[in-house]
Amino acid sequence: MSNGIINGSGKRSYKLMIVDDSNLMRRRIERSQQFEELELVGTAADGVEALELFKRTDPDVVTMDITMPHMDGIECIARLVAMKPAIRILVVSALADKATAVEAMERGANGFLNKPFTDRQLNEAIAELIR
Amino acid sequence: MLYEQELKTFVEGTTNFFEVAAQQPASIGSPYLMEGSPSVHEYTGVIKISGKREGVVYFTAPKAMLTVLLMKMQENDFSHETMRDLVGEVANTISGNARRDFGRDFVISVPSVLSGEKPQIPQKPGQRSFIIPINWRSHSAKLVVSLT
After folding, report:
1. pLDDT value of residue A123
2. Looking at the partner chain, which of A25, A67, A116 has a beta carbon nearest the beta carbon of B108?
3. What ipTM was predicted for this assembly?
């Protein structure tokens, strides 16, 4: 992954946005991710909020739920990728059928993590995303 | 109509949820047919099912169980809103995981959450509901699956 910015210590850093309609899940992802190079720039509860937040904060990395009110994650992924093709998106969803994962990847997602997940699984999935 | 193998999908989903999210296995009892009106605990997360199947899946649990579950998830907010969020997320996770077997035409809604003594569960008259009993630590909860 080449986007992000180089911080004062010479390491690349990335702006993170978390999108999930569950406040509990948003806090869980924020608390469990262990990457110093990720800076949380905001969280959103649905796709519409995520697009507004994207315009204000220009995130590099996104965790994205799928089943959400107003605009679901599949549509939001397509819109984010259209605005910023280099954005890296990890889908974090309970939907466990292959067709949904394939569609998310076809729309531009870069990884897929099923709920429920352990901290280790989350961090491995994010590592895959930003390496 | 709900087949034994389909009920097994929800039993496995419930087992997996507690093993992974709570990091402590629950004892999941054999499903049985619900008789009469639904009996629920303090918090109930409801997922409406549409597409090739129709009905509801709901997870109902007492506050005491949800409190311990939040602790196991390293959460430190035990407010009413967080309890509501948690039951919705449990119902959503188990229902969403069921698509591994049911496929993408098993369409799940966003969760709606009921709390209080006598919540109204949306259910068609005559629709059969199966209760999956959940015992975790010293607490009891239920997953109810009602599908046509």
Report:
1. 97
2. A67
3. 0.90
Nearest by Cα to B42 from B141, B94, B136, B116: B116
Q: Which range, A6-15, A55-64, B27-36, has the best average confidence (pLDDT)?
A: A55-64
Q: Do B96 and A31 touch (CB under 8 A)?
A: no
Question: Contact, A16 vs A61, CB < 8 A?
Answer: yes
Amino acid at B118: K
Structure tokens at A53: 């937040």
Per residue in B22-75, pLDDT (tens digit) is 999 999 999 998 887 777 899 999 999 999 999 999 999 999 999 999 999 999
- What mean pLDDT, rounded, does chain B reach? 91
Indicate the residue of B74, B75, B97 with minimum beta-carbon distance to A94: B97
Mutate to test the interface with B, among A21, A67, A71, A113 (most CBs of B within 10 A): A67
- Which chain A residue has its CA at the smallest distance from B101's CA? A97
**Percent of residues, chain B, with pLDDT higher than 90:** 77
The Cβ-side half-sphere exposure at A130, using a 13 Å CA radius, reads 25
Nearest residue, CB atoms, B103 vs list A69, A93, A97: A97
Q: How close B28 comes to chain A (CA, Å)?
A: 17
Q: In angstroms, what is the C-alpha Rg of chain B? A: 14
B77:A117 CB<8 A: no
Cβ of B99 and A67 within 8 Å? no
Question: Is residue A2's pLDDT more than 60?
Answer: no
CA–CA distance, A126 with A16 (Å, rounded to integer): 11
The CB-side HSE value for B129 (13 A sphere, CA atoms) comes to 24
